[in-house]
Amino acid sequence: MKKVLVFTLAVVMVMSMAGMAFAANTALVAQDGNRNDAIVDQDGETNAALVTQEGNDNEADVAQRGVSTSALIDQLGNRNSADVEQEGARYGGFTHQAFITQDGNDNDASITQFVDFHGGFGTILQVGNTNKGEILQDGNQFPVGSYALIEQFGNANEAKQSQTVYGGDALVTARIFQLGNRNFADQLQRHTAYADVSELFSIQIGNDNRVTQVQSEIGYGSLNRYGLAFQLGNRNVAEMSQRGHEVEHLAYSVQVGNDNETSQTQRFGEQLGAILQIGNANEATQNQSDGTNLGAIVQWGNANTASQTQGVGVGLGLIVQAGNRNDATHSQATGLNVAATVQMGNDNSVTINQAGL
After folding, report:
1. Nearest CA among 157, 150, 108 for reference residue 125
2. Per-residue pLDDT at 313
3. Exposure on the CB side of residue 191, measured as CA atoms within 13 A
4. How far is CA 54 from CA 58, 79, 104, 144, in A?
5. Structure confidence at residue 23 (pLDDT)
6. What residues form DSSP beta bridges with 195?
7. Residue closest to 60 by CA, chosen among 43, 79, 42, 75
């Protein structure tokens, strides 16, 4: 199945280069054994590289500079390293494309894409334990935008993604999917000018997982923001911070399991925010600043604690708790405020502070 996937990606990559015969560079490297090194350095209008390695302690480095670049690295074994660095990607319809697949333990994968225009596409797939994957995308993203995806299947894996947008009006998306225990996911999006939509998605299934997502701005920021963290397991932690400049922020956090904790902070703009927790000893904190706020926290289990603070604007807010020894706190500042708290169980307490009409 994995070989079929690699072959399919290779065909797509080669076909994407078809019709671009001008100054095209193509490199194919196949290595079988241990402690092999593969270095590909390409400089031209269009570049394509395919590297396959089977064995342990192998290293593959691909560096591409040009208008349109494509790279695929496939590694089977342990303690392998794969690195792709791409620069350029000018003019309409051209992007950076990078794919890394690793099957084994203690592997390291990195994709770095610097774009002048029209964004990049990066994907890392890792199967095994204690693997690390990182994607960095930096530059002007219009009008195509950028897409980053890391998928990890195993335990004690680490995934990091960072996207910086200097200008554009396109979709910028970063997604992380992890299946296993003791995994870590970290995502960051930064904007210096408007981007139509910025999306961050993290999904973790397993125990003792942690996810951190931050969207920030330097200058005008983005028009829309979405954030989603879904965790299924025990003792999960999710933190999310979105700092828009003008308009919408949306943040969702869904946790199923025990000892879960989530914190969401959204600043000015139009925020929504929603937290759903099912399990024991859950904690939820939501802080939404200026603008039109909504907010909702639903907890199901024992010893739950929920706190919701919404700043200047309309407000609303809803906290529903079912279980024992639940605690809920509402605080909404000036504006039209509406708060509702529903508690079912024993030893529940609620505090609501509202100011303004």
Report:
1. 150
2. 74
3. 34
4. 8, 11, 10, 35
5. 43
6. none
7. 75
Three-state secondary structure call for residue 48: strand
Q: CB–CB of 226/200 below 8 Å?
A: yes
Alpha carbons 344 and 101: distance in angstroms, whole number? 49
As a residue count, the chain comes to 357
Which pair of structure tokens corresponds to residue 278? Answer: 């099912």
Is omega for the bond preceding 143 within 30 degrees of 0, making it cis?
yes
Among 184, 185, 143, 146, residue whose Cα is nearest residue 164: 146
CB 169, CB 195: distance < 8 Å = yes
pLDDT, averaged per 10 consecutive residues of the chain (357 residues), comes to: 51 46 77 92 93 94 92 94 87 78 94 82 94 89 78 92 74 89 86 66 85 68 72 83 70 85 80 85 83 82 83 79 82 77 82 74
Pair of tokens at residue 323: 């279980």
Fill in the amino acid letter for 233.
Answer: G
Which residue, among 31, 26, 23, has the nearest Cα to 54 in the 3D structure?
31
Q: Is 259 left (phi over 0), alpha (psi -120 to 50) or beta?
A: left
d(CA 242, CA 68): 32
Decide: 195 and 168 in contact? Cβ < 8 Å.
yes
Q: Say how far apart CA 86 and CA 330 lie, in whole Å.
A: 49
Q: With contact defined as beta carbons under 8 Å apart, do 107 and 76 qualify? A: no
pLDDT of residue 152: 94
pLDDT of residue 288: 79
Give the whole-angstrom CA distance, residue 199 versus residue 153.
Answer: 22
Amino acid identity of residue 308, one-letter, is Q
The alpha carbon dihedral of 178, 254, 135, 49 has a sign of positive
Helix (H) or strand (E) holding 349: strand 349-354
User: Two tokens at 273?
Assistant: 């925010």
Q: What is the pLDDT of residue 193?
A: 57
